[in-house]
Amino acid sequence: MGSRAKPFVKWAGGKKTIAKKLAQMVPLDFCEYHEPFLGGGAFFFELYNQGILEGKKVFLSDRNSELVNAFQVVQKRIEPLIETLKDFSKMHNEALYYEIRSWDRSEDFFSIDPVTRAARFIYLNKTCYNGLYRVNSKGHFNVPMGKHKKPNICDKETLYKAHEALQGVVIECCDFTKALEKVGPKSFVYLDPPYLSQGHNAGFASYTKQLFLYESHQKLAHICHALDSKKVYWMQSNIAHPKIIDLYEKYGITMIKKSHIINANAKKREKVQEIVITNYKEKAWI
Do residues 256 and 240 lie in contact, with contact meaning Cβ atoms separated by under 8 Å? Predict the structure, then answer.
């Protein structure tokens, strides 16, 4: 058996460890797949590996423009991306890290070639502290360099497998509200929003300069109710926070596992009960 497609970046809250379990809960029959909180794409890659998406239209999106740009470049411009990553790998040191990190402070940042920006994104992910993606209120990446002895900056096999998996996929940078506007009946939507903190209004949500607060979860729940009325299948990963349970009390809720919300400060890492919410019955699972 050949190698499997998997995330080419580390992402807080990624579903790599439970993707196979989640795949068992996918509805039996659907025509399109939508994932508006893409992150590292672990669940998408698992569905691809199992052949569940074969013959289906796939729509992936996220509002993090640098993440989406990286996916688009892996999809369409893999060769120049790998060459640029090889160059970064040869030159890697602390000075280079902080120089490359500072690029987004420039007004000309978004005029940089998409391949170079994608290579920057992957390079920082492979060499920063704990693979943590975090930006400040200005949208500037601000994670310090990690203590990696030999970071695998250019993981060619993983990049090529991701490239194969992404062929024919629609990848867009947009908010979840826009991504879900035109989803039709018998489509399947997987939702993995930033989690609420047990003790605060938001958990780790600094993927973009706009935080994902409880009001965003309320908006998402409203959209889920609308999707349900349109006969759209949806599955959502979240935590057993009382406010979340209240928003989805009429749907099926399955306890999955307990895990820790990522935080640079070990004392602030919270252990939470993860849940899966579905608007379809268990008998409709694969």
Answer: no
